[in-house]
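note to self: the first set is below, dont mix up w the second
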Amino acid sequence: MKNITLLLFILVFGKTFSQQSTASKQVSTFTLDAPQLLSTKKIWIYLPIGYNNSTKRYPVIYMHDAQNLFDAKTSYVGEWNVDETLDSIKAQVIIVGIENEGNKRIEELTPFKNEKYGGGKADAYLDFIVSTLKPKIDATYRTKTNAHNTCIMGSSLGGLTSFYAALKYPKIFGKIGCFSPSFWFGRDAMNELMSKTESFRTKVYFLCGDNEGDPDVIPDMESIEHWVNTKRCECNKLNKKVIVKGGQHNEKLWRESFKKAYLWLF
């Protein structure tokens, strides 16, 4: 019995103990009280190469699920390699990653309640980003604070709440990275909200794979993109839709797509 227990312990926790951190030296972390969420959030910061030797100001991308962005040691099923990707092209941008709280992830990353899965507390989560986190970042780092230089990006539920953030805070977020968005979560409520939205000027990068596992991902995303196009002239080229052949709902798709999304958005 003891041997079985030891084996299970090794299988579950072995990766954590043996895996070395893969985060680059450009990445650091801090914790911040989140009164809107009645919790404390761990925040990951990526500063561009040359930041400390410069007086420049930089655009900022806020990203969800920070555990999976920079470090294989903390990632659930693989990281996005955000830091290595940006280092490789000497990108001039600051990344702010917000860790999810595990069992509270569905609550925080969904704007509407789902009959089966619950959720619906993204308003509080986004209020934390806008009212607490962003002022802290802008006061601490040399940022470009306007909407044109502020992006919010995420995948799956993070893609959903990023799009919602653009609807709710158009004067804060001028750019969105919307990867494999879970628009099925509260579809009717989202459609109702969009029907009440008179204008939409945010730049959006829509991305998903054609093998996501959920047959609704592509039609839902295309429906949202169509709505976006009805709010402005397509000639403005303020949104881009990418469907990756063979792409699945996982970090591999998002990791391999991040560079192109960043270069298009910025």
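second set (the one i keep forgetting abt)
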Amino acid sequence: MSRLGNLGARLYRGEVGYDFIRNRKIWYGVSILITITAIIGVAVGGLNMGIEFKGGAVFTTDTRAKISTAEATEVATDASGHLAIVQELGNGGLRIQITEVGTAKANEIKETLSEELGIPAEQINADLVGPSWGEQIANKAWTGLGVFMVLVVIYLAIAFEWRMAVAALIALIHDITITVGVYALVGFEVTPGTVIGLLTILGYSLYDTVVVFDSLKEGQKDITKQTRFTYSEIANRSINSTLVRSINTTVVALLPVAGLLFIGGGVLGAGMLNDISLSLFVGLAAGAYSSIFIATPLVADLKEREPQMKALKKRVLAKRAAAAARGESPEDDGPAYRNEVTTEDAETAGAVVGQRQQPRGHGRMPGKR
């Protein structure tokens, strides 16, 4: 068995592990910091909306131009008064995209491009895009997002419980906010491909979260009938038991997306691939993070507020304190899930334990040989 497979088996059995729940305040702080940065990026810099949302003109040529792409960008920008995006096509032609351009202005730009590029005007195709089309796409995307969120909350509330539904919803909002913030910070163009990518990552993010929730649902059966683990410890065990699977599925999904983003968009210069690949890459990474560090710890926080879970925690700590008083080791499945008793917990445990119990004897009963 490989080292990773052996580690996964040990994590599943509870022999090793990391206490994600105990350090949840650190993860909350990191997520809040990243989310605030993303919101500031959107508020200050704004999103670089594509031509499909702003409206404008797209000029394409099938003939190789006499000037470079950089020179064509400068010419188109000067002619239109707006920043132009120029991409080289596979046949050697150019695709020039200029936002907020009307019909009359598009004709003037076409004549200027014909002179500067050294291409006859009839060989330059000009397509006008109205902003109303992009507005329709945006409205439908928001509608689809809202319907998706409602259905997710209803399904998770029925299949699991409302606390898990709330935690999953917060994790999804967390992932979308970070992804949108990255677009604002790096200045990538937002196109319909970006919207498709954003809607796609919701499924990936929810998949990892549901895997952990399913393990947690199995682990919390008859939880109040035992005194070995608190709810938070069982939640932590669920994260560790599915950790390797979550990492494997995320890495496998990220590899092809990284190829599109860094090789296709960065090295080969196919800028149109950046529209969807960046949203997928950031969203997949954020989804894997939120399912481990945000969603499940939130569920644990919400569950620990219940009277039954509070009583369970007192019983577990009382049993451990009694075992420690007798010089015995508390029952557990390994050091990865046994929390150290803090001062506050010790006081709670002491109030429940009461009088110290005498050690159990192993000798003969009185009067018997």
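remember for set 2: The chain has 13 helices and six strands.
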